[in-house]
Amino acid sequence: MVKAIGLGSAEELFDSIPQDLRLQRPLNTPAALSEIELLDRFEQMGARNAGARRVSFKGAGAYSHYIPTIVDHILTRSEFFTAYTPYQPEISQGTLQTIFEFQTLVCQLTGMEVANASMYDGSTGLAEAVLMAERVTRRSKVIASSAAHPQYLEVVRTYVQHAGIHLELAPFDEQTGQSARGLAEAIDDSTAALVVQSPNFFGCIEDLQALADAAHAKGALLVVTITEAMSLGLLKSPGACGADIVVAEGQSFGVPLSFGGPYVGLFATREKYARQIPGRLVGEAYDKKGNRGFVLTLATREQHIRREKATSNICTNEGLIALAATVYLETMGRRGVQEAAKQSAQKAAYTARAIAGVKGYSLPFTGPFFNEFVVRGPHKAIDLLARLGNEKGIDGGIALSRFMPDRPNDFLVCVTETNSRRQIEALIDALGTIQVP
Amino acid sequence: MTTAITKVTSHISPNEQLIFERSQTGRIGYRLPALDVDEVELNIPAEFRRDDDLEGMPEVSEVDVIRHFIRMSTWNYSIDLGMYPLGSCTMKYNSRLNERVARIAGFANLHPLTDEQDAQGALEVIYELQEHLAEITGLPGISLQPAAGAHGEMTGIMIIRAFLDQRDGAAASHRRTMLIPDSAHGTNPASAHLSGFSVKTIRSTAEGLTDLDHLRELCAHGEVAGLMLTNPNTLGLFETNIKQICDIVHEAGGLVYMDGANMNALVGVARPGDMGVDVIHLNLHKTFSTPHGGGGPGCGPCCCTKELESFLPVPRIVKSSDSTFRLDYDQPQSIGRVKAFLGNYGMMLRALAYTLTHGNDGLREATEAAVLNARYIAAGLVQDYDKPFAGSPMHEVVFTDKRQSRKGVHTLDIAKRLIDYGFHPMTIYFPLIVQGAMLIEPTESVGRQELDQFIAAMRSIASEAVENPELVLNAPHNTRIGRLDEAAAARKPALRWKNETVTSAPEPQPSTAQAV
Fold it and tell me: Sheet harboring A114-115: ordered strands across?
């Protein structure tokens, strides 16, 4: 082939690269491994992740839920996972129709009117929602509840640092674990949005209706973010409570933990803001014969046309993970999502009550919760949880001191439908007997 | 004519409904274990609970779901079906082995907030991949946190901004112009804008390279924060003057950002760090073969010089003196976090597996094959299509519809006709500076036989454009649906299914499909 195009050697392919810029040696990366060797290496590295083998009560933005077998089966269909962004609709209808269904499911769950084709994850989706609120209102102040996921707030801070947006953190109520009542008073005529998470980082459910009313009274938007999307199976949708933009992490819907990604951001809003949405949108279209199909639409919002005036710089999103969420939601369906949500809430309530009965343990917050709650223990949570893991093989939750140094003894416990009664009893027994020197 | 056509897909059910239209009240496709704890009255007030009973959500069986998706899957073109020569997208083969690696329980079941000592293997994967990417790019500072190319761009540009603010103090506020060539990806100006820069466009020369005189002129204004350059550029040409370009920008006090979308032309052959580039993003979902999945997930590592390293996002993944791996948050100059947790970890596993299965020689061999394939297509089509730039292309080549458009056949028509021949079309109408652009990137994942078939199909379309233009103008002929009216879809967007009685199709209209 080299000869067929008139060259003498493969090296001549690179003649347009000046000689002194060419690498004159082999790359200093390892020699090729066979399949057997490669799997062996990765199996060994995988085995050094003790955390993956334990009974777990960890949540805080990534949740262990049941994943029907068919989710991964459909995900690994070549036609889905080796396709690109559906630029050519005639040969991309599988992807396009799936995204249209995904957008519909996101709207149904969040109670909103329009949803996009996905964001990278919940945290970046929230940052995009804040930028969108500024565009919609042309106001520059954003008030965020400090009971939102600390890492989400960090991401928002990074995104807005050069966008002329002033981010203000509002305190939470030490008693209830919900956003403080004073939050409403901080909203003024320069406020673009009020940002709250519900259930919040502590697992407590916020009074979204009241927060929406407070925001709207001053002409601000209510942006609701959700890290545990399964809660939507039980809790009133943010849309029904008056939210203007809803962003959720969709990992709970059929996506493995996978050490933090890839996950999928769900992004939904009111129809009147459709042209301000970041990212891809799929809409219905017809061919000349009147056949229904689907296309990428409202592209004039996007970077490949609007360049620096685009609603976002996002291009690649999380198409395959959106497919996983779609397959999950359709397989579990209306009743399955409700049941998984109900079982999670019931098991969490049972666990919370039992832990509160163990000597030395209490629940510091009184606010209603879905499937996560804060426990205050008799020892430093970091030490307690390490012992629990090493001695009992139970991952008992997440020490809040990792994010909030002023809460040394508090830890966040999450219970889902995958935690059996036996696992829960083992946790409770272990908490009662564990000794921390 | 019809005998030459390879049909892409066929199916007994060309009109699979939406799942919502298949839904039957009371049907279920799942089973959970019975609740094994005593049911209690939850402390959730009634006004906080859903009262719509999730009306409208699908109620279907497992086999309904399987048939639904398998039928829809047959409407997609995919790499596994054939050549997917989308320029700038690098649609190479996605190894099944890498999929298996990503599903190893020790990684797949690992919670992102696992304590460091219980996730040493997972952190080692990140650290090792960082080391390899540093060697490949010649840039030692790496963060794998960004989730996609545009996200890596934003990260890189914010790093430039943080560096300038630190170096120049208050004076940095006068340095807010980002230079971007007119041939750049649209994400470049959008990312620059997100970081608070205004954009000035640099012209390309008639040869398709950056206009050095124009660059000097723009740099003379003294407000230049940096340059965002794709290399090889989006015309598939290596910026031969890259060193000089970097010197000009550096002398003006700015930094050079390289869009690494086209790294598939350089791996093992040349390194951005050796060219004078300060910061670059990679697309693991292009160059390192992680699947595109119908539009993601991606992973867009940001790689930079030692000088810029302290500005990378937190946490950094570092190796301690006792050879354990840990997360380092103590980086006061960092731009901050750009994503929750540690990024799209599953993509990192696949990219490391790609690097290790190829080995150092295999990585270079892939680059050679990718460039050779593009060069072979360039040679094969130059008789029939207008090639606007004489320079030798690297891993992708741009042609135009100049000759065919005389007969009223345009790039979009050629692309649609290519579907009838069993190929996914190339990238069309990009880069914007080339009228009727067709950007073809075969990657290393095709052999000579398939390249010959592609060239034959393109040449056949060129003859059809002369002899029977209608055939091309009305393509595709063999797909489940014809060209969709995208303009009508945008005018009155229907972005979700609604529970209404039959939506009637609008009156047939002439197609006004838009460019990609």
Answer: A114-115, A265-269, A245-249, A221-226, A191-197, A141-145, A166-170
Mean pLDDT lowest among A140-149, B151-160, B504-513: B504-513
**Domain check: are A262 and A399 in the same one?**
no
Q: Considering the domain boundaries, does residue A211 fall inside one?
A: yes
Domain span including residue A152: 69-328
Which of B11, B16, B59, B69 to probe the A interface (max A CBs under 10 A)?
B69
Q: Which of residues 106-165 of A touch B (CB under 8 A)?
A: 107-109, 111, 113-115, 117-118, 120-124, 149, 151-152, 154-155, 157-159, 161-164
Binary contact (B113, A28; C-beta < 8 A): no
* pLDDT > 90 fraction of chain A, expressed in percent and rounded: 94
Task: State percent of chain B over pLDDT 90.
Answer: 92
Q: Which of B80, B110, B285 has the CB atom closest to A257's CB atom?
A: B110
| A204 and A235, same domain (yes or no) | yes
Write out chain B residues lying below 8 Å of A109, CB-based. 54, 57
Q: What is the pLDDT of residue B515?
A: 36
Per-residue pLDDT, B4: 55
Instruction: Give yes or no for a contact between A176 and A200, defined as CB atoms under 8 angstroms apart.
Output: no
CATH of the domain at A369: 3.90.1150.10
A18 in a structural domain: no
Task: List C-alpha distances in Å: A93 to A78, A84, A292, B74, B294.
Answer: 14, 12, 10, 9, 11
Q: What is the ipTM of this complex?
A: 0.97
Of the residues A299, A328, A357, the one at which a domain ends: A328
CB A315 within 8 A of CB B187: yes
**CA–CA dist A13, B375 (Å, integer):** 8
Percent of chain A predicted with pLDDT > 70:
100
pLDDT at B14: 67
The CATH code of the domain that includes B306 is 3.40.640.10
In a domain, A118, yes or no: yes
Q: Is A102 on the interface with B (CB under 8 A)?
A: no
Question: Tell me, what's the pLDDT at B499?
Answer: 85
Q: Are residues A169 and A238 in the same domain?
A: yes
Full domain range(s) for residue B245? 99-355
Q: Which residues on B lie below 8 Å from A281 (Cβ)?
A: 493, 495
Number of compact structural domains in chain A? 2
Q: What's the pLDDT band for B502 if we cut at 50, 70, 90?
A: very low
What tens digit of pLDDT does each residue of B402-435 get?
Answer: 999 999 999 999 999 999 999 999 999 999 999 9
A85 and A57 together in one domain: no
The answer to whether the CB of A299 falls within 8 A of the CB of A101 is no
Q: For chain A, say whether B275 makes contact (Cβ under 8 Å).
A: yes
Give strand pairing partners of B200.
Answer: B179
State how many domains chain B has.
1
pTM beyond 0.90, yes or no: yes
CATH number, domain containing residue A140: 3.40.640.10
* Residue A213 and residue A85 in one domain: yes
Domain final residue, candidates A279, A309, A328: A328
Mean pLDDT of B27-46: 95
pLDDT mean over A383-389: 96
Of B19, B45, B299, the CB nearest to A368: B45
B470-493: pLDDT as tens digits: 999 999 998 989 999 999 999 999
What percentage of residues in chain B have a pLDDT greater than 70? Answer: 94
A211 contacts A221 by C-beta, under 8 angstroms = no
**Is residue A216 situated within a structural domain?**
yes
What is the rounded CA–CA span in Å between residue B335 and residue B162?
A: 7
In a domain, B397, yes or no: no
> Domain for residue B110, yes or no?
yes
Q: Is B5 exposed, middle or buried, given 0-12, 13-18 or 19+ CB atoms closer than 10 A?
A: middle
Asked whether the beta carbons of residue B353 and residue A42 sit closer than 8 angstroms, the reply is yes
